[in-house]
Amino acid sequence: DFLQEGEPTSARCDDLAALKSKGCPMEDIENPRGSKQVLEDREVTNRKIGAAEKLKPEAITQIQPQKLVLKLRVGEPQTFSLKFKRAEDYPIDLYYLMDLSYSMKDDLENVKSLGTALMLEMEKITSDFRIGFGSFVEKTVMPYISTTPAKLRNPCTGDQNCTSPFSYKNVLSLTSEGNKFNELVGKQHISGNLDSPEGGFDAIMQVAVCGEQIGWRNVTRLLVFSTDAGFHFAGDGKLGGIVLPNDGKCHLENNMYTMSHYYDYPSIAHLVQKLSENNIQTIFAVTEEFQAVYKELKNLIPKSAVGTLSSNSSNVIQLIIDAYNSLSSEVILENSKLPKGVTISYKSFCKNGVNDTQEDGRKCSNISIGDEVKFEINVTANECPKKGLNETIKIKPLGFTEEVEINLQFICECQCQSEGEPNSPACHEGNGTFECGACRCNEGRIGRLCECSTDEVNSEDMDAYCRRENSTEICSNNGECICGQCVCKKRENTNEVYSGKYCECDNFNCDRSNGLICGGNGICKCRVCECFPNFTGSACDCSLDTLPCMASNGQICNGRGTCECGTCNCTDPKFQGPTCEMCQTCLGVCAEHKDCVQCRAFNKGEKKETCSQECMHFNMTRVESRDKLPQPGQPDPLSHCKEKDVDDCWFYFTYSVNSNGEANVHVVETPECPSGPDIIPIVAGVVAGIVLIGLALLLIWKLLMIIHDRREFAKFEKEKMNAKWDTVSQEAFICIKATVV
């Protein structure tokens, strides 16, 4: 009875919240969860160099855990922590692969004593060190070497005594005897070839895949590749008529590579694969001239390093030590090929609080011996593999032999599927298996209860049972007709469901309010809202609750309106507000609250003594100025008031009532009072005016006096001049008169 009519059987499967909302009890819900189980969890080894206890390499643990089982449910990640600790005094195998073409003649002399010298240096790092030696020249076909009999015996010119050319030779398998290294390498002779690039890739491939002949152990494996030239790679063999791709297999006979004339050089990708598979870390010891080339190669080969070799290899020991420290200071995790639909992600927790995710989450750098780092690894199944078979993946640090083995078990079915009842009477006389509350029909049977046979059913006849009366649509175009019954479509949104005998109903096409189906106050059934109690309307958006309409006086809408859908509809258009309490055009709103506002805001007025009893029916807020008062346009009805207080001062306030029936008053905190005359400025102004007028009069008088004095002086000067003229005239007259006499 869980499914509605027309719902498909698959509707039994849904997310947890949806099943609960449909009324499925928790005890009837099957919801298997993923899990993890650690099967092998040895602690990482704490060991000091020079310790009395000598552990075998396989007894040293650097990675934890070692084995676990993850049960994966699709879409649910499982997380586990991986710990890595670089062990002290960890064994090292080092194989020295040297180019013995003629240009390396002086280098060979320095390498002859490398064994014992390198042993002494490596004792500072590990007490378990082994060393081996191999050499290479070139493929023994034209045009890489001269194939004339004389040149095959001695490829060098003049009186130089050189050994016959060869592709690769394993001179000394890995040994802990440094003297033996010096002895055998001391017997080696330089050879020669025609072209500059060498056949070093052939040699690297054989060193990587011929583990038994080389003597590699499951410890740190170092390959030192020493040359002063470039390299041939896949495709170059065509010059010598060699077209077969390198097969990546061991072809050593009597420690000599015998198939150089048959297989092409390996590609870089092929070398990367084999070096990684065999946990070999490569150190390229090359001269300054070819540094750029081998640095590019290093970027393609994980866990490799490049060092600058002096012209005669005199610095090779320090180069090896530096490169080893560089390689061992970084740990990079890699995983084997993942099953289809499985993804993995890493998060690193390195030294000094350095954390990274995505690709950088796979590695940690600057790790010293004894340092411990952690990784958080998420494994997620995005789909179930075919037949739900278990899979195994492995995670390991590059260049190390230790690994974490993870067995993946996929949860692809519910437990109830394994508990089904075959040929159950519940499935129409045993025509199906009753499992997980539904029938899984036997072959040849269809229908919800497997009641129809595919051989007997005529689809056209059955379609008539899936049409509504006077309709041509099968299952209302919302489903398909199976065995004369409509099975409705599933929607992308699992909460949206078609139902009904003809799939004519749904739960998502009802009226909406506030963007919600049935306003969130009802359930959509067959395109009609069934409202919760106290709600009505086509979208359940009308509340029957009258409490929001109740005024403070106990009346609904203050007796001035009707309560409709929880909101007052005021019958008198003059009134408004949540309970029809406001009348902006009515006189007395401001006067009614004037005394209470005055006593609350300024502690004065007629109601000063009874303020706490009569004037606490509103919330009051003080503002600095009239500009800060609420302005028209807000949702709540608002009255602006200007009243005089007992001191003949004007004070301003607003009065409003919100949707909850609460009265709010905003009042300007400072009244505007008429100010009296200011005596001091007036007196000062009068005095200043009198002084200024006096000064002006004095200046005018002084100016007039100056003008008068100047006029008098000018008059005096004129009269003085006239008097002087009269005296001269008289003297002249007397003189003339005397002459006449």
TrEMBL record:
GO terms for biological process: cell adhesion mediated by integrin; cell migration; cell-cell adhesion; integrin-mediated signaling pathway; muscle organ development. Residues 1-414 form the Integrin beta subunit VWA domain. Pfam families: EGF_2, EGF_integrin, I-EGF_1, Integrin_b_cyt, Integrin_B_tail, Integrin_beta. It is a single-pass type I membrane protein. Residues 590-678 form the Integrin beta subunit tail domain. Keywords: Calcium, Cell adhesion, Cell junction, Cell membrane, Cell projection, Disulfide bond, EGF-like domain, Glycoprotein, Integrin, Magnesium, Membrane, Metal-binding, Myogenesis, Phosphoprotein, Receptor, Repeat, Signal, Transmembrane, Transmembrane helix. The keyword tRNA processing does not apply. This is Integrin beta.
